[in-house]
Each structure stands twice: as structure tokens, then as C-alpha cells.
Amino acid sequence: MAGRPIRFIVEDTETKSDVAVKKATKLLEDDKVDFLVGSSSSGNTLAVVPLAEEHQKILVVEPAAADSITGADWNKYVFRTARNSSQDAIAAALAIAGQGTKIATLAPDYSFGRDGVAAFKEVAQGQGAEIILEEYADPNATDFTANLQKVIQAKPDYLYVIWSGANTPWNQIAAMKLQEQGIKVSTGVANFAALKTMNPLAGLEGFTLYYYGLPANKVNDWLVEEHKKRFQGEPPDLFVPGGMTVAIAIVEALKKTDGDTGTDALIAAMEGMSFDSPKGAMKFRPEDHQALQEMYAIVLEQQSGFDYPVPVLKTVLTPEETAPPIRNTR
Fold this sequence. Notes:
Layout: H1 17-29, E1 35-37, H2 42-55, E2 58-61, E3 78-80, H3 85-96, E4 102-108, H4 111-126, E5 130-137, H5 145-154, E6 158-161, H6 170-175, E7 184-187, H7 192-195, E8 205-208, H8 218-230, H9 240-257, H10 263-270, E9 274-275, E10 282-284, E11 291-292, E12 295-301, E13 310-317
Parallel strand pairs: 1-2, 2-3, 4-5, 4-6, 6-7
Antiparallel strand pairs: 8-12, 9-10, 10-11, 12-13
């Protein structure tokens, strides 16, 4: 960019906050990076956020979603291309909440889950729904029997599930026959691995932040085509477009500064900046640097040729519809 090479360095957080801090410190102090990008865990990311301020370097957050990253724990060096928990919550509430709807929630017991439930509750109650149970499970749990028994006893109209990770509750939800007992299940549809555990839940109504067949734009067309070329015909999974989006945002910022990597110049360029992504046009909101973006209301359908239920588009939820509350104290 502007005659300067771009160097790309990868470090593994191991999804441990202390390791994330150690690796981020190495990148900032030894490698002298101009941008930090990451990470997969909200807890790890929150541990690194203060380092961005201490070293006065930009942290672009992807895919961590906890509201507090651009809320209570935010500082001016933090930009987020990922959606946050409130955007998930708004999309989820628009999909299922209505006057008098009784909803139970199930989420992992850490910042991602608790922030997600708090944001969902705020929006759903605003739509007239009643949250009758908030159930939190150990994020490393493999047995959700006790949690799901509480849900069955509460007799909600919907169970809204927030989950991330390989140890999903979907098989047990199906095995305990929640839907047969009149409890509709809704969630943010996750990656291919999670979808493959959701075959018994065809007909589920929910939302997704991305599925490769949903966005209709040239950037996504390019991503899908190139990903299939490079990875033996495999389409991009849930978080692949996030990586591309960060790269686009950084390159667009550097174009605006003509290659100047001074932090103040980059912040000035990125605040309010619009840029293309596989999810269409995004914009860094000046007040909290959260990227406003499309979300997708979907229904899961069984289709021939797929070993998982396919997310089929019901409605594109616009960046304006899913714009989250500003939660920082700037």
C-alpha cells in the first residue's frame, strides 16, 4: 500500500486470556505492528483491549461479539468489523418476539453469553415478549440435561439459544424433544459443524450473521468463487467473511491516509468510514467504532445434496434495523 509492503503475522491465543495478552504484547513490542486483529473469544479480546490503549495502536475486533468490547470496556483505539451481541439480539428478536410471547434463554456462562442474553432481553421485552427463564451453562459443558429440564418445566413458547463452540446443545435439545413438547427453538445459526448437528431441527426460525448463499453482492460472489477454487470446492464458513472484511477495512483506511500508519491519522480515516464487505456495505459508527451491517432472518430447510439443514432467507435485516444501542461513555 502506497509503496509499502504489508507484513502479516499470526499468533495463537489458544483461547486463553493470559496467552492472548502475552502474544499481543509480543506483537506490539517486538514486531511493532500497526494493527492488531482478533480474536475468536470475547474474553481473550477484552483482556487485550487495554493493551491497544496502552500502546496507542488500533485493534480491529473480529469475530468476538461481546457488547462490552465497544461498550463499557471500549477505548478509541478499538474498531469492530464483527457484529456485536446487540446486533445478534435485535435480529433474533425481530425473528421471534411479539406481544405476550414467553421466551426462555440458554447461553454459556461468560461475557459472550451474558451480554447476548442481556441485549436480547432488552429488545425482546421492547417488542412485548416476556423472558421467563435465563439459563446459563458452563461453556465447557457436554451435558445440558439439567439446563434443558429447567426449560421444559418453565414451558416457554420459545427457547432462544446463544452458543459458540464445538460442544453444542443441539443433539440434546432434539433428544429431549423440546419441539414435540410445544417449545419452538430459535438461535443464531452457526458454522457448518454446528449445522450438521441440527438436522433434527429443520423448520427452526432464527437468524444468521452469514451463510455463503445469502448475501447478494459482488464481493461475496468473489469470496465464494475463490474459496471454492482454493479449498477443494468448499464454500466459505461462518467466520471467513469476517477475515476478508477486516482486510478490506484496513486497506481502505490505508488508502485514505496514503499509507500513513500513524494512529491518529488512521482513527480519523476510519471513524465514519464506509467500506464494502461480503455482507454488503458496512460503516464504522463514529460514536463507538462498531461496524453497522446486514443480518439475515432465516428458516432451516432440508435440501438434497446437503448433510445439514440449509439456512433459507426470509428477510434481509438492514444495517439500520440492526444498529445496536451505543453503550460506551465516550
